[in-house]
Structures are given as structure tokens and as C-alpha cells.
Amino acid sequence: MPSSSHAPYSVPQGEHGGDVQQVARFLRIAPDNILDFSNNSFVQARDITADALASVNSEFDRYPDPDCVALRDALAQHETCPPDELLAGNGSAELIWLALATLQPRHAVLIGPIFSEYRRACEGLGIPHTIVAPPDDCVQWWPQHRPHIPQQADLAVLCSPNNPGGHTCPDLTACINALDCPTILLDLAYRDFLGPVPARENHTWTALKKLPQRLLCLHSLTKFFCSTGIRLGYLAADPALLASMRRKRANWMVNAFAANAGIALLNRFNSYCERLPLLQRDKTTLRAILERCGLFTEILDGPSFLIARINPLRFDADCSKDKPAAVLRAKLAVRRILVRDCDAIPGMPPGYLRLQARATDDSAVLEKALREIAA
Predict the structure, then answer these.
(1) How would you label 120-132 residue by residue, b for 16+ Cβ within 10 Å and e otherwise?
(2) Half-sphere exposure (Cβ direction) of 151: Cα atoms closer than 13 Å
(3) pLDDT tens per residue across span 308-367
(4) Which of 5, 26, 63, 370 is the most exposed place for a label (fewest CB within 10 A)?
């Protein structure tokens, strides 16, 4: 194990994982010396992204188009809807805050597990909210469970495919109707991992916008297109609602490079889909490693990752069994491997790690570290 002068369980974790620079400073090593399994992007397609971005014109010498007309035209083709039903933003995080600030719900219900930015935005905007976790200490809702929506709630937030729970609503229309809430914000950031198949078509604005509820569909280009360093996302919703959001935001929230990058990435969508079998192969390899090491009691599949429940009894000797995820994450971090401790994710039961599916050589490094810890 690499030497470190730091207490092993004090390695910092940021709010959303992917803390390579922060952990590198803490361990006094270069960021390139850290193997990052905490990132959720489609790393099997990284070379496609690198090729696409190499050809992007940054247009650094003039202001970007505040309406992102060219990008919205490309997104409209991707979504098969009119451009005025789309709003681009500086990543999904900006759009979450903008949507909540515009909607101003009297009470929001966050159906966990859910991206923690929703809770953070509710708290920052003073919006009363309830986090509804799956029953029976599990991480998946449908088809075995249905969330209870508080009577006062007028906004529900639902993520499918779910991060980090991993599950996809089998019939999204039925799931929306089961929520019994007038406004639904659907987080579809991982939808494109479903590929060009009927399951993906069930998760589109075009298929859902005729429902009686007021719907907003949130998308991210950073996960499927392996571009987390480029903050780019978009909302699909009623044009009048999006016009209200535009009036509340600052101009030029999407810079010229990000807008042009989005077009280049969307043009290669089919190439990314062709890499999905490679992603599935790497998830199968990672699952086998997690099963062999003997540290986990449950392993669940996600769009680009696995989540694994830790056996707390394996850590009784050196920590409280109430914090096994933090301990195992720290033990891996001092071995220069980052994974995501899920304990702080709203609606997530304790004791889970999330691990990105990476190439075989990277997974072999992870397996060696897990075997050392398990020994």
C-alpha cells in the first residue's frame, strides 16, 4: 500500500464524487496517479469524445449565441421535437436550480435515491421538500414498490435510469401516473445508455409530453458522451415554461466551445451506441471481481456502473460498522483508487459503494487492492 502521512479515514470526498484533484492534493500526488472509479461517464467511448472535441471550433473571439440555436437544432433532431421545446444549460446542475427557481413549488418530493443537487437546490431556494426512500432498506422502486407522495406536494422528482440505484422504470408512463402529482421533473441523464431500443423510446419527451401532468425532462450530455469536464445539459418542456426560465437566467450560460462540442458529440451518437456491448463486458468483469473479493453482500447493475453493498462485519476490527462505505472508500483512496461512497446520496440506504465500469487493466488494479483489504 502506498505510504501516506494522513489518517486513512480522513481522505476527503466531495459532494458528487469525481474528486481527483482534491484527493491528489490531500495525498500529495499528481492527479494522473489516481485511478478514478467514482466517475459515471462512458469511459469505453473516451476516444470517440477525444476525436470529436479535437475538431471543435472554440470561437473564443466572439460572444456565444445566448439562445444556442445551432445546438438546439441538433438536440431537436436527437429528441425528435421542435427546438422551442428545448433549453440548453451549463450542465444539469444549473438547470435543476433554474427549474426549481421558476416552478417555485410549495412542496417538492424527491424520490430517492436521487442526485443530491436536488436537495441542495431546495435548501438553497428555501423550498420545503421531502425525500422519499424505497422501503425495506432497498434501493429500487418499481415494480415491487410505489412511492408515497405527501398530499401537500405539487412537484415530484424522479430519476430513470436511476443513479445510484441503477433501476429503470419498466413503464415510465405508468410510473408517472402512479405518482399522483401535478408537476413531474424527470431526470433522464442516463437514458442514452439504454441504447436505440424501445426502452429508450419510453424515456423520451416526445413519448411523454402528451400526458396530463406538467412534465420537464432533464438530460445531461456529460455521462453518455464521456465529457464530464464540459458542463452541458438540456431541458425538454413546454415552450412557455422554458421561455419563463430563459427570462430568469443570465445570458451566455453555455459557452461557445460547449455548444459546438455538443453538436459534435450528438453527430456521433451511433458510434457511442456501438460501444455499449463493450461497456456491458466491462460491467460483467467488474461484477465478477466484486463477487470474488468477499467484501460485499449485494451487487446491483447501473447504466455505466455497479453499486455494491458492503458487509459491515468485515470492518469491525478497525472502525464502527455504521460507516463501512466511508472506511472502504478511504482504504482504496490511500491506494490511489477512487470510488463513490453513497451514504450521503438522498434516499440511499447506508453501506453502498458505486463503481464505474472501466477497462480490464483498471479493474485488475482494483481487484488487487480489494484483495489486500480483504486479507
Answers:
(1) bbbeeeebebbbb
(2) 0
(3) 999 988 865 555 556 899 899 999 999 999 999 999 899 999 999 999 999 999 999 999
(4) 5
**Could you tell me the strand order of the sheet in which 296-301 lies?**
296-301, 305-310, 352-356, 340-341
Instruction: Give bridge partners of residue 356 from the DSSP assignment.
Output: 305
Instruction: Print the domain residue range for 225.
Output: 64-272
Counted domains in the chain: 2
Cis-peptide, bond into residue 346, ω within 30° of zero: no
Residues 323, 345 within the same domain: yes
Give the integer Cα–Cα distance in Å for 345 and 16.
9
Asked if the bond preceding 212 is cis, omega within 30° of 0, the reply is: no
Average pLDDT over residues 146-173: 92
Model pTM score: 0.92
User: Is residue 195 classed exposed, middle or buried when 0-12, 13-18 and 19+ CB atoms within 10 A define those classes?
Assistant: middle
Compute the distance between CA of residue 170 and CA of residue 189 in angstroms, rounded to an integer.
Answer: 17
Residues 75 and 165 in one domain: yes
Which of 272, 306, 330 lies at the terminal end of a domain, its last residue? 272
Same domain, 318 and 211: no
Report whether 359 contacts 127 (CB < 8 A).
no
User: Phi, psi (5° rounding) for residue 267?
Assistant: -65, -15
End-to-end CA distance of the chain: 13
pLDDT value, residue 101 = 97
Q: In sequence order, what are the residues at sequence separation of 6 or more whose Cβ sits closer than 8 angstroms to the Cβ of residue 210?
A: none
Is the link from the previous residue into 161 a cis peptide, with omega within 30 of 0?
A: yes
Are 225 and 333 part of one and the same domain? no
Percent of the chain that is helix, strand, coil (3-state, to 5): 40, 15, 45
Structural domain includes residue 56: no
Measured CA to CA, the distance from residue 11 to residue 334 in angstroms comes to: 8
